[in-house]
Amino acid sequence: MTDTKVLLDYGSGGRASHRLVGELFLTHFANPELCRLNDAARLELTGPLAVSTDSYTVDPIFFPGGDIGSLAVHGTVNDVAMLGAVPRYLTCGFIIEEGLEMAVLERVVASMGRAAREANVSIVTGDTKVVPRGTVDKLFINTTGIGEIISDPTPSGDRAAPGDAVLLSGSMGDHGLTILSTREGLNFEAPVKSDSAALAGLVVKLLREVPGVHVLRDPTRGGLATTLNEIAESSAAGILLEETLVPVTDAVRAGCSFLGLDPYYLANEGKFICILPEDNAERALAIMRADPLGAGACRVGTVVADHPRQVVLKTVLGGKRLLTMLEGEQLPRIC
Amino acid sequence: MSFLDSFKDPELSRRLLDQLAAEGQGLRFMEVCGTHTVAIFQSGLHSLLPPGFVHLSGPGCPVCVTDDAEVAAYLEAANKPGVIMATFGDLMKVPGPGGANLKTAQAEGARVKVVYAPFDALTLARDNPGDTVVFIGVGFETTAPTIAATVMMARAQGIANFKVLSFHKLVPPALSALLSDPEMNIEAFILPGHVSTIIGLAPYEFIARDHGVPAVIAGFEPMDILQALLALTRMRKSGKPEVKNLYTRVTSDAGNPKAMAVMNEVFRTCDARWRGIGVIPGSGLTFREAYAEFDAFAALGIELKTVAPIKGCRCGDVLKGKLKPSDCPLFKTACTPARPVGPCMVSTEGSCAAYFKYHLDA
Predict the structure, then answer these.
(1) CB contact under 8 A, A335 and B46
(2) Which CATH superfamily is domain A8-149 in?
(3) Is the separation of the CB atoms in A129 and A11 below 8 Å?
(4) Is the Cβ of A183 closer than 8 Å to some Cβ of chain B?
């Protein structure tokens, strides 16, 4: 691109828009369906489908372990996979602030293209808008993902049953703490990086080899505590979580202690919760641990008939307390 | 096991709990620090205390004791043209008269910026020379010295558009007020580790000397708290109340004289309003004459006005240890973290919020 900054012209639908699409998006997202540049994409799919949409507004747009582009692929692909589906296609909508450095946009688009190839999904249709300076913060991206469901019955948040084992694919809080610690104005540096990753490959392997997975969820915004509460509520069951079993890295633990945050409420972008009958738990864990994205997988709790709709944490000391849903955002405290 | 992990050693904790059960017949103890409140609930200690040990959370969360009139004052400041409010995050949702808070003020156009440190507010003032940046000074002796240091730095750097609304409060006068209450039935105090790091041991000595109540400065890990409870139980039993410092890895008996000097350079004591408790003489901090130019009250022409207390809210009785959060008629009904009525439900370190968030009904 000749201009060093994104101008309003690039969202006009005229030649400038065409240049942006042709020279930037098609280069990095290249696939036959997108390159036809029709008004809509024609998809080849069979059976029941999973569809999910999400908008990405992360600040800062580049962070250790990823950026808004890779996150926009991973986040949506993971949501589709959690319904027991193989993600196939993505759509994307870009809303760009006038004046954004072209090099920044290119870096994001390249990262997004790379993430899509790695996740085996094709970005088949898209839209670009450029809005006046100050009306969005740099760059927002929306993606919608479509996948083919391979699991029957499909995993669902309302299927947790007393006796089920609760598994976690790895450590909690890495993404959330990374974003908070790199956010502008926060003079705090922690040796942490986002866990942003596409989980579909691992999830598909798990579903093909282990029958009867009841629930799959990725604990993104609101973190582990919020997601487990949603599951307990939908399933009208209790969940007993063991603090000693929940993996949290030393860096995340230290950062949370410093900032007055709880890692159980921090977002994750490359981890999932798997709830399934006790008998299949060991097999599921073996499959998860064989994959680098599930290397830290472990059992963290059990679905119980007691205290329905509540998540109870058995603490390191052996005490029990509620683990409730987060009310709004976590706010830094005074002392 | 790392040094820090050893303070939450489950085996050691079990032994200390057994010892507490064997040696004590119970204890109505109060902590006066929001971090202790959360630590006791979050670790599960609250559910493990032997029979007869009653955990009360006193006026130790600075957000919780911020008076309605003070909330009204900073909201008034926030709505003034040319003002940018800088605040610690916990204050964002504290409801003032009529349910307004900084979040609603922000939505209506007020400029509010959450900062992690008062020095960030100074940067904000430097970057916005055409505006007045008002820092909301809420906190105890832990926080006041850094704000005083920020004021001194503002003077050194000639940043005249930085102002502070000082609502700072002092812990020992509040403890004195609690102990002088004829209905007081607290048998022991766990003293705040952070505040004590600044003020040291001496300001608390009246607790044992004048009131015969034992008190211990404690850290925030489960072992710290259990060790404190054991020491308090033993003093209670022996009839020899003392004030002890058991947080010696962080707190020296002398406190931090340098921080105290900075605080006393900028501020002097004044009477202050405590939510639910009322005016406590000599329990607040206001600007000394020499630093009056940084006083946002004067700069913006704001006065504390008496406002009607929140109807039905029993936060005052909760803060005094007279009422358990779950015994307040508003708890979990009209008052929840989503729609907090009183300040004890707003702050993440408030006793009602901790009860709501962590307490498991037996």
Answers:
(1) no
(2) PurM-like, N-terminal domain (3.30.1330.10)
(3) yes
(4) no
In order, the DSSP letters of A104-151 are: HHHHHHHHHHHHHHHTT-EEEEEEEEEE-TTSSSSEEEEEEEEEEE--
Domains of chain B: 5-62+184-229 (3.40.50.11750), 68-170+255-300 (3.40.50.11740), 315-358 (no CATH)
ipTM given for this complex = 0.78
Peptide bond into A60 cis (omega under 30): yes
pLDDT of res. A227:
97
Q: Does A47 touch chain B (CB under 8 A)?
A: no
Contact list in A for residue B221 (CB cut-off 8 A) is none
- B189 contacts B55 by C-beta, under 8 angstroms: no
Closest CA to A78 of A201, A194, A178, A248: A201
Q: Give the chain B residue nearest A225 (alpha carbons).
A: B357
Where do the structural domains in chain A lie, given as residue ranges?
8-149, 165-322
Q: Give the mean pLDDT of B251-263.
A: 97
CA distance B149 to B165: 15
Mean pLDDT of chain B: 93
What is the per-residue pLDDT for A332?
A: 52
- Is the CB of B116 less than 8 angstroms away from the CB of A322? no
Distance from CA of B16 to the nearest CA of A (A): 11
pLDDT recorded at residue A334:
46
Among B6, B16, B36, B42, the residue to mutate for chain A (most A Cβ within 10 A): B42
The answer to whether A333 contacts B90, with C-beta atoms less than 8 Å apart, is yes
Number of Cβ within 10 Å of residue A117's Cβ equals 16
Instruction: Specify the pLDDT at position A158.
Output: 97
User: What is the pTM (predicted TM-score) of this model?
Assistant: 0.84
Quote the pLDDT of residue B342: 81
Query: A184 and chain B: CB distance < 8 Å anywhere?
Result: no
Partner-chain contact A321 B14, CB within 8 Å: no
Chain B hits for A313, CB-CB cut-off 8 Å, are 44
User: In chain A, which residue's Cα lies nearest the Cα of B358?
Assistant: A322
User: What number of C-beta contacts closer than 8 Å exist between A and B?
Assistant: 98
User: HSE-up of A111 (CA within 13 Å, CB side)?
Assistant: 22
Q: What is the pLDDT of residues B17-48, one digit of tens each?
A: 999 999 978 999 999 998 999 999 999 999 99
CATH classification code of A165-322: 3.90.650.10
Look-up of token digits 């209905």: B183
CA distance A28 to chain B (A): 38
User: Which of the residues A181, A248, A321 would you substitute to probe the B interface, choosing the one with the greatest number of B C-beta atoms within 10 Å?
Assistant: A321
Average pLDDT by stretches of 10, chain A with 335 residues = 82 80 90 88 94 94 95 97 97 96 96 97 94 94 97 95 98 92 66 94 96 95 95 98 96 84 93 98 98 97 97 95 81 50
Q: Which residue has the higher pLDDT, B339 or A193?
A: A193
**Rounded distance between C-alpha atoms, residue A143 and residue A89, angstroms:** 10
Model confidence pLDDT, tens digit, residues B180-196: 988 888 999 999 999 99
CA distance A213 to A206: 9
List chain B residues with CB under 8 Å of A308.
none
Matching residue, tokens 């598994």: A167
Q: Taking an 8 Å Cβ-Cβ cutoff, which residues of chain B contact chain A?
A: 8, 10, 13-14, 34-35, 41-48, 62-63, 88-90, 92-93, 114-117, 120, 138-140, 142-143, 194, 222, 336-338, 347-349, 356-360
Q: Please tell me the predicted confidence (pLDDT) of residue A184.
A: 54
